[in-house]
Structures are given as C-alpha cells and as structure tokens.
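Lecture 7 notes: from sequence to structure.

We start with a single chain of 281 residues. Read the sequence below before looking at the structure.
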Amino acid sequence: MADLRGKVAVVTGASRGVGKGVALGLGETGATVYVTGRTEREGEGPDFLPGTIYQTAEEVTALGGKGVAVRCDSRNEAEIVALFERVQTEQGRLDILVNNAWGGYAYMLEKGEFTWEKPFWQQPLWRWDEMINTGVRGAYIASQHAARRMVEQQSGLIVNISFWAARVYMANVVYGLSKVASDKMIHDMAHELGPYNVAAVSLYPGLVRTEGVMRAKDFFDLSNSESPQFIGRAVVALYSDPNLLQKSGSVQLAAALGLEYGFTDIDGKQPQPINMREDAG
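Now the structure, written as tokens:
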C-alpha cells in the first residue's frame, strides 16, 4: 500500500457514498483528508441516507490518516473559497482534489412519482440546477483554487468522479450532459496543467455498494460490484504512478486501474471493468 503521510487531499461530497469511500481510501495511506459536504447531523442526508462529514472524518483518522471535516456546500462559491483558504492556512500545500459532490439524482421520487426517467421536456428544472451548479460549476471553482496551489508546487492531481452517462444514454438527458461537461473539463484542464506537472483525470466507478444501492440491493446484481473505498484506492494508485502525466486528460475506469496497478477491493476481490458501447441506447 502507498504511503501518503504528509500529503493533503480534499474530497467533496464525502458524507457518504463514493466520496466517503475516496476519503477512506486516502486515509488508509496516512494522508490528511479534508472531508467536505453538507450533512452535519445524522438523518439530514438526502432521502434520509446515513452518514455525516464528521463520521467520515473519524473513520479516516481511525484508518491511520487525519480526517478534517469541513461543512462546504459545493453550490456556494464563498464556502468553496473559505475551504481552500483554510487548507492553505493549515497545511500550506494541496496534493489531491477529488471532485465528487453531485446533485440532482438524490430525489428521484417527487410526491410519490418517479421522475428520473421522464423525457427532458417533463423534467423539473431544479434537477438541471442541482447537477450543473453542484457537479460542474462547483467542481470548476474547486479546481481553480486547487490548481493555483498545485501549479505553484509543480505537482498535484485533480480527479472528477464521472460516469458512463457521458458516453451512453442513461435515461436522463441532463445527467448525461453534466457528465460530458465533467469529462471535457478534465480533458481541457489537463492541457493547461501539464506544463506544471499537475495531472487531471476523470474516474469512472462501476456499480458501487453505496448506502443508496444497498438500500435497494434486491434490485441489483452485486456480483461484480465495488466498495466505495475501492474508488479511493484507485485515486491513490493514480497519484502514486510516476508516469501519471501520461494519463492526464483521460477517462479511467477504477476496475481497470485495479488490474493495471494490482490493488484489490477491501474484501480481497478484483472487480472487473464494465464496458458500455458508446452507441448503446
């Protein structure tokens, strides 16, 4: 396992799910991890899902890292700015930023009606606002502030957690559009960051055993699923690669990285990469 003691990471949207798993994956290497999100009290998460930023930070510390919980709404520019100012004041460096915070698909039921798969002309506009403002705009602002520090250091990694919706139709137009924007952001940022030895990568999980997925586990085939922490191990493996810049600007599958770098999931299993045709749907 890599040793990232002395390294500093920011993971957004880390109260639960993939973001929490990324924070834990970094924590088990000894990194200092700033755990951000909106949930401060149990039971206040979307759809009453469990988890808070404080619980995640405590688990990061229990694994050997240093978890620092910071309440930060990725829709709020002032809170994002305050976060990075705090990191700079307390640490003086930033090595990894993982943009995981997202919005828009937490509430698929509205007044008892499943609206996620409605055609775009029947979609509520709040879903556009949540996905674009949180997942795209928030990631862009966070990346700006992270890049300023990383460019000065001449090192660092920015990761956007993305998904196959950028390439295939997944029953919601704005979801696909927002993921395309996330991937394109990474691709173009990599061109500008490369001369400063800073990398940017889009990372696709597979089927992840998040709290939400496990709540509906009877509807999923979990035989090739991934723990949230597996995604964190993928981030660690990327950062630790001396040839990381060769992957900068690209889309990477967490499971494919597991095969390439030789890391496994927390249960010792080796998830296999899923492959979706770009002409599907």
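The longest strand covers residues 198-204. Keep this in mind for problem set 3.
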